[in-house]
Amino acid sequence: MKSIEDKNILLGVTGSIAAYKSADLASKLTQAGAKVDVIMTKSASEFITPLTFKSITHRNVLSNLFSTEGSEGVMHVELAKKADIYVIAPATANTIFKVAHGQADDFVSIAALATNAPILLAPAMDAGMWEHDAVQTNVETLISRKVCFVGPNEGYLASGLWGSGRFAESHEILGAISQILGANGPLKNKKVVVSAGGTIESLDPVRSITNRSSGKMGFAIAEAARDQGAKVHLVAAPNNLVKPVGVTVTDIKSAAEMGTAVIKECQNADVLIMAAAVADFKPLNVEKQKVKRRGKENFTVDLVQNSDFFYK
User: Fold this and answer.
1) One of 211, 240, 298, 306 is an active-site residue; which one?
2) 133-142 pLDDT tens trace
3) By CB count within 10 A, which of 28, 31, 220, 285 is most buried?
4) Domain 191-311 homologous superfamily, CATH
5) Known catalytic residue: 189?
6) Domain limits of the chain?
7) Checking DSSP bridges between strand 208-209 and strand 201-202, what pairing results, if any?
8) pLDDT (tens digit per residue) in 169-215
9) Stretch 242-255: mean pLDDT
10) CA distance 247 to 297
11) Strand ranges across the sheet with 148-149
12) Superfamily holding 8-181
């Protein structure tokens, strides 16, 4: 992720059980070449120690607002000023309230007022809290101020319940960070269409012919275009990959479906990148029922050429 390399990323960690996942985020950001500075609320330190983040980032961690040692009292303002992006992950309901209302009584909330960098929040809380009108009003307030959000996801929660409020996965937060940092890149306001993966042509309801394309190259191209500020539409054949954050994806199966989707998206596109492995041939006839093995010594399939939609 070139958009993250050498960037100053300020990571605010607040008091949620999901705080332990922030260590993985800090690790991945550091591995990507970012300079990661961590600031924590007092309650966050009850879930995970500052030493954990210091060991991962190899940088000092600010956690005690009233420390009499060193220059912590002003250092957090300096970090906020030089940050390229400020990420609060996890962001509790209490922290969202503070940022929305300008309350500043800990490192994390003070930095939100002191920074001029884009702010990204990754909420984590119980479903009932996330869905509460008070929280949603604060979220709407922050969105109106161009504060960005990633997640929360729907899933199993610490309370044992199932619902919305689960902390976003590290790769989702990384994708959101890359998109924000690259928003003003050379492809800003450009639409890029990318195709990826190997198409599938059905023989009968259970059998098909395809190729070994993984789709990785097309997905990587889509992410790279996103990180340069483009609005990206990815037309993807069946794959086992995670959908890129900030990229619109159309899932297709056959070459004909891919052609229809690509032609549609190219009507107002600036760039088309064909990275898919599109089938050259398809069966002449598709059986309506599974072809039985019994009584057959051979199984012959007649193939015909697929239309080459690239020239349309």
Assistant:
1) 211
2) 999 999 999 9
3) 28
4) CoaB-like (3.40.50.10300)
5) no
6) 8-181, 191-311
7) antiparallel
8) 999 999 999 999 999 999 999 999 999 999 999 988 888 899 999 99
9) 94
10) 48
11) 35-40, 8-13, 85-91, 119-123, 148-149
12) Flavin prenyltransferase-like (3.40.50.1950)
